[in-house]
Design a protein that fits this description.
2 copies of one chain form a homodimer.
Chain A: H1 8-20, H2 23-29, H3 34-48, E1 53-56, E2 59-62, H4 64-93, E3 97-102, H5 104-107, H6 111-121, E4 126-131, H7 134-143, E5 148-152, E6 162-170, E7 172-176, E8 198-200, H8 208-217, E9 226-228, H9 232-241, E10 245-249, H10 250-258, E11 263-264, E12 274-281, H11 288-312
Parallel strand pairs in A: 3-4, 3-5, 8-9, 8-10
Antiparallel strand pairs in A: 1-2, 5-12, 6-12, 7-10, 7-11
Chain A binds a DNA duplex through helix 3.
DNA sequence: ATTTTGCATAACTATATAATTATGCATCAG
DNA sequence: CTGATGCATAATTATATAGTTATGCAAAAT
């Protein structure tokens, strides 16, 4: 049971004594007298009903209890400090803000609902949504310009210092407009896509290497007539109006497929199965607002996913 | 600046009022009178120099400040609660313990040093190291029996509810004893490995599908003479004493290769490049001791990695 | 138009607190 | 042996606290 009488004074004093391994020095930096420190520590020990320091005549050392408690005490005061800080931040800027990077896969599927849900929970937090090539987003995330990036797991060499939270997995799809010539055949020869314009992800896209591998695995070499694009809005419009074939992560076109605007080509893309999730920095702790957004995205993703699974049956 | 006079009484009272949206109800559940709650909230507001609630005649609502502060206040009391809990845990069990799952890749390379380093930082924390098939370890992690699993990133479908922190990436190696017949040729025909006994990871190993794909890509079908094993000690001994070829993640045999006990076959395994890292649960927050261990592993991994890079030049 | 609801304020009281100074006591260095 | 170091304890004091009861007051409900 938590002793309500514990003040932050006790914790900061404890932390200072632990850091300095000395009551006298701690008293000095805290600008109070030595007996005051002694007494404060004793109070804390009484409240916790555990000895935190071993006292000797040559300084003090943490007991096992103290060593353990040290971490939690630090976390506790840090949290409160952040709380006080963010209050003044709200006062100055008129609100908190989250900077969010969004990759194409989720930009149109999971994220709109997730953010909508988050905004009902926390309407005063400004969410800034940034789209762009994943290399750029990961760079910004690492530097701290972004708090969170949602999308496919980036290539290993870009992941240093970053943490990945899995949401679901998806594959890459080849889609075309309904009534596309290739679809006339029930089991079309997939190498025939070389006869058409193909929209492919550009070099810097996460799925580029995966797409390459898949094409090779299916015996399709270099595509003679190709357009490289990241723009799903362009890809969507272009594919619906021409005979072009669009190679794109499934999430980006899932709703279009469901609504019949686009049709998936019958090709085995199981090799392209890959994880979609949330990427964050490791070093800086996740702030509560970001944590709330993460939860909202996770919830929405699982809902979204179960819907998709249901739709397939 | 943090007001030292803030007590946990203030925070818990604040949290309760925020939760109930009512001073009267909060007073009830806290078993004190309504004016006491009013006063406590006012004190907290004075200490923070910010209004936390809008008072109306139909309950109270959080202000923007209050909404923001709420999260941090929650985090702060949670941390202290955990601290108090872990003290009693230490008292009962005579020490904290971390349960750690270790996959073969890192069992012999990164982890020994990492844990040694961690023990110098936190000698009183018992570290229990569990090895085993990854499916089992991931299951235990999800249930809470393990706090952390270190190794290759598991297949997407096992990653739900888990978070992955990238450490480095490695590929899969084909190794044999020095002086192996295949090595007589400078550029041996790799399909000839079918002529030998091959040790391969079993079905439930993380790298199993990757190995399968690689074998197919190199035009090697089913292996006629194969032994499936997870045991690196068996694999190591068997490979050194016979003409068997061992397909195993590079990390598990890196030191043997460096010391000349085993030799890598010259085969392109770049497709098998994959992330190695730390897997944790998302929902339960990472406790300070586990966080320290994570840092120790990360440090050791980057040191280890830079050494490897240096060794290659 | 009352009554009820929900919170604030005031007045009061017994404790608790947060310091202080003065002092004691063991250990360690010289 | 002596003094310095480092912490604990005691005595003291002004202030803060954590509650209490009693009361007020505006909005909402009846």
């Amino acid at each position: 049971m938590l002793d309500q009488r514990i003040k932050f004074r006790h914790l900061t004093c404890f932390l200072e004594v632990a850091r300095q391994r000395s009551v006298v020095k701690a008293a000095d930096t805290l600008s109070i007298t030595q007996p005051a420190v002694s007494k404060t520590i004793r109070e804390l020990e009484e409240h916790l009903d555990a000895r935190l320091f071993d006292r000797s005549k040559r300084g003090v050392t943490l007991t096992d209890f103290g060593k353990v408690f040290l971490r939690y005490a630090g976390a506790s005061v840090t949290a409160l400090r952040q709380g006080v800080d963010s209050i003044s931040q709200v006062r100055m800027q008129g609100g908190l803000s989250i900077n969010l990077g969004v990759l194409p896969t989720v930009a149109a599927s999971v994220m709109p609902n997730a953010i909508r849900h988050f905004k009902t929970l926390s309407p005063d937090t400004t969410v800034k949504v940034v789209a762009g090539p994943n290399v750029m987003l990961m760079g910004q995330l690492r530097v701290g310009e972004l708090d969170l990036v949602v999308g496919r797991l980036a290539e290993p060499d870009q992941m240093s210092g970053l943490s990945f939270i899995h949401l679901y997995s998806e594959h890459i799809s080849l889609v075309a407009r309904p009534g596309h010539p290739l679809l006339a055949d029930k089991n079309p020869d997939i190498t025939r896509i070389r006869e058409f314009t193909v929209l492919v992800p550009p070099k810097h896209a996460i799925i580029h290497p995966t797409v390459d591998k898949m094409l090779i695995a299916h015996g399709i070499g270099a595509l003679p007539d190709r357009i490289e694009t990241v723009s799903t809005s362009f890809g969507r419009a272009f594919t619906r109006e021409t005979d072009a074939i669009w190679i794109i992560s499934n999430g980006a076109v899932a709703s279009d497929i469901a609504e019949g605007h686009l049709v998936e080509l019958p090709i085995d893309t199981s090799d392209t199965f890959g994880p979609v999730g949330l990427t964050t920095r490791i070093d800086s702790p996740i702030s509560p607002p970001v944590e709330m957004l993460i939860n909202a995205v996770r919830e929405e993703a699982s809902r979204h996913h179960s819907e998709q699974a249901a739709a397939k049956t």
